[in-house]
Amino acid sequence: MHLQPTIFALSLKDYMLPCLNKKLFGLECPGCGMQRSVDLLLHGEFLAAFKMYPAVYTLIPLFVLLISSKVFQAKVDNRYIIFLSITSVALILINFIIKLIH
């Protein structure tokens, strides 16, 4: 029996939404892999999460900053938000193009 450290006992795989674009057209969308990547992160598989969806490592801090600034009214330097936004979009587009080529 192999024990694996997890943050959540449940696997998110049971609750993942299917990609409508993939079902209708057979092509992955730019967001395909994000849910699986978060599930891999929660199970401690950091390299596999990066390989699945590299932008997960910029999107998580971006969402934390956005939620902090909007919901909790925390003072956040907009330069961080802009940098993380541009980096996330670039990673998503590069990953999407690589998926289309392969």
What does this structure look like?
The chain is mostly helical. The chain has five helices and no strands. The termini are far apart. The chain has one domain. The model has no long low-confidence stretch (mean pLDDT 89). InterPro entries: DUF2752. This is DUF2752 domain-containing protein. Keywords: Membrane, Transmembrane, Transmembrane helix.
Set out the fold topology:
Blueprint: H1 20-25, H2 34-42, H3 46-52, H4 56-70, H5 78-101
Helix pairs in contact: 2-3, 4-5
What's the overall average pLDDT, rounded? 89
Biggest β-sheet description: none
Note the beta-strand portion.
under 5%
Count of distinct structural domains: 1
Low-confidence stretches: none
In a nutshell, what does this entry contain?
The protein contains five helices and no strands. The protein has 102 residues and is mainly α.
Question: Can you tag this structure with a few keywords?
Answer:
60% helix, membrane, DUF2752 domain-containing protein, DUF2752, mainly alpha, transmembrane
